[in-house]
User: What shape does this take?
Amino acid sequence: PAPAPAMGRPAVPAAAALLCQLGLSAAIRWLGLTESGGRVAWNETQHCRLLAGTVPEQLPMCRRNLEVMHSIVRAAAATKGACQKAFADMRWNCSSVQRAPAFGPDLLKGTRESAFVHALAAAAVTHSIAQACASGELPLCSCGSVPSEVPGPDFRWGGCGDNLRYGLQLGAAFADSPLKSSKLRTQAVKAMNLHNNAVGRQVLSDSLETKCKCHGVSGSCSVKTCWKGLSNLGEIASDLKSKYLAAIKVTHRLLGPRKQLIPKEMDVRPVKETDLVYLINSPDYCTVNLQLGSLGTQDRQCNKTSVGSDGCNLMCCGRGYNTYTEEVVERCHCKYHWCCYVVCKKCRRMVERYVCK
Ligand SMILES: *[C@@H]1O[C@H](CO)[C@@H](O)[C@H](O)[C@H]1NC(C)=O
Ligand SMILES: *[C@@H]1O[C@H](CO)[C@@H](O)[C@H](O)[C@H]1NC(C)=O
Ligand SMILES: *[C@@H]1O[C@H](CO)[C@@H](O)[C@H](O)[C@H]1NC(C)=O
Assistant: This one.
């Protein structure tokens, strides 16, 4: 008889599947630069080797534009922070981005969560470069061009606007290059994330708005200068979260001469340029299932009175919760002493906390 397969060791197909997944995820592996990328000065092309192990397609761009790499490292940190903040009240809370560049299945496959993170990361790179231009940090760009619209009667264009154009140019080249490479990867996942990257940049571009500063005698605002500035990444993340909740499940099909992303359900409207799209359903993230990239919600804090996703009912998936009390120490009974200091007492207060079973 054939020898029994070795026990307790992953079978070969699992390894092959893993390699395949690594290929799929390459587009956001640069998020891992928050660790390694902060340790080098990015003033020598050899520093680009930090990208080599993860995303070779981004190497040429790094070598040609070393000066933007600081912005990209900052964008990686900003993406992680904004993602976790936007999803703090959800079962999937984006904690898995911390594992970059070694992601789990929640971000390796064509899931909704992956759609969100790709869109946010693509927006973040463009955002970071556009603002670095305006802060005078980059040699090849400066403030955004003066808006073509006629200023209102009460202001004039001035100050220094974010350079969205330059940010889009370099940001798109960086974020999309791994998805445009010809290496063996599933066409559907590439198409999905190219689409989602573009959605992220569109949401960012739409956030460009007029910001003003008042001048004049004692803040009378008789003179106002205005420029075009982008929203902060937290607001972009919150817009993208709404799109995540309304994301459309698609398949990649030949439609006419080209492959296109079309809704999986017959009765769904065609995909628009502002919709996030995904290919496979996510687990409910209620229980631990590492094959599916689910960490489960056991021990997550929940809100007993909320009816939203952070409420104990939804967060704990009906398993119930444990209550414990915790002592918090706060400053209180503060008194102002003339002049000029404040003295406070320390008050202790018990608060109830609820944690999923
Ligand atoms: C790069 O920066 C580091 C630290 O600031 C410095 O020691 C090194 O000489 C620089 N290299 C080049 C090629 O300028
Ligand atoms: C996010 O969820 C994981 C898994 O349940 C948990 O370990 C982690 O503490 C959570 N993070 C936050 C900030 O709540
Ligand atoms: C819990 O949810 C309620 C209702 O949404 C909200 O008013 C309250 O501030 C939340 N409590 C905490 C601790 O987040």
